Amino acid sequence: MGVLTQSPVVQPLRRLDVWLADTSRGKCLSAIIWSGHPFPRHKSEEDAIETIETLRSSLVFSGLEEGDIKELARICVDRRLESGSFVFLEGDEPAWFYIVAEGRIRVLKHSSQGKEFVIAHFGPGEMFGEVAVFENKPYPASAQAVSDSRVLAIKRNDYLAFLARQPEVAFRIIHVLVGRLRDAQSRLRDLAGERAEQRIARVLLMLQSRLGSTISFTRQEIADMSGATIETTIRVMSRLKDRGIIRSVRGKTIIVDEAGLDVLSQSSE
Questions:
Q1: How many other C-beta atoms lie within 10 A of the C-beta of residue 221?
Q2: Domain residue extents for the chain
Q3: Residue 144 pLDDT class (50, 70, 90 cuts)
């Protein structure tokens, strides 16, 4: 089920708010799609500078020489997304590789009963959609903007050609993918046998390792990532707050006692 189509003729973008139904999976998604060409053809000088800075901030591309990073920037196209709009949907053809420039993107799947499961969140400098691009198989999950966001997109063939000339970048990507696989295995173990309190503690520790002690995630997002209900997550977070392990300030969660949170994540009682 593809929602982004390309035409040889560049057409003006028109926003369409639609309901996308996928009866094979028994789900409906509220989405924003765009008719016409999904990406702008040209970048201004200011956009080009922003693209280069985004690439330099990325773990994967930060080690590139100036000429190489400018070459990569030339094949990037810029796309701005409103909160709630989809970058791609599960099952779409892997035409593009993506890097987050601004905002936050979540990757999610839906069960046959329509239950949403959040696989990961990605912030500025992080890549997503790479596995489907390498395998040349449909995207295995959907990607959605959590807030107003901007992403850089690179056509699959252009990206693979660039990697063929830059093997050190390919090795960095492998390193990132190995880390994500390790995280996925850990989450599967958590979901299989651990209590909700442990799972939530592990999610908070994982977010802290990536974002620091102040976490701008809602209770619902933490619930989705830990496989718990929103009601259970609220209760657990309240207990953590009462025990002085976390604080809540203006919708943000601040981890105060990392050691205590770590002990809780390992506890089997």
A1: 20
A2: 14-180, 195-266
A3: very high
Question: Does residue 170 register a pLDDT over 70?
Answer: yes
Which CATH entry fits the domain spanning 195-266: 1.10.10.10, 3.40.120.10, 3.30.565.10, 3.40.50.10330? 1.10.10.10
Structure-model confidence comparison of residues 146 and 196, the more confident one: 146
Question: How many CA atoms does the CB half-sphere of 81 hold within 13 Å?
Answer: 28
Tell me the whole-structure pTM to 2 decimals. 0.60
CA 176 to chain centre: 14
Integer Cα distance of 106 and 96 in angstroms: 16
Which residue's structure tokens are 């958590």? 190
14-180 belongs to CATH 3.50.50.60: no
Percentage of the chain lying above the pLDDT 70 cut? 74
Q: Which amino acid is at 90?
A: E
Q: Give 101-132 pLDDT, tens digit per residue.
A: 999 999 988 766 667 778 888 889 888 988 88
Say if residues 143 and 34 touch (Cβ distance below 8 Å): no
d(CA 131, CA 147): 24
Pairing label, strands 105-110, 142-145: antiparallel
- pLDDT for res 182: 64
Region of 232 on the Ramachandran plot (φ > 0 left; ψ -120 to 50 alpha; else beta): alpha
Alpha carbons within 13 angstroms on the beta-carbon side of residue 192 total 6
Mapped onto helix, strand or coil, the DSSP state of residue 239 is helix
User: CB within 8 A of 26, min separation 6: which ones?
Assistant: 112, 113, 114
Which residues contact residue 179 at a Cβ distance below 8 angstroms, ignoring those fewer than 6 apart? none
Question: In whole numbers, what is the pLDDT of the chain averaged over residues?
Answer: 76
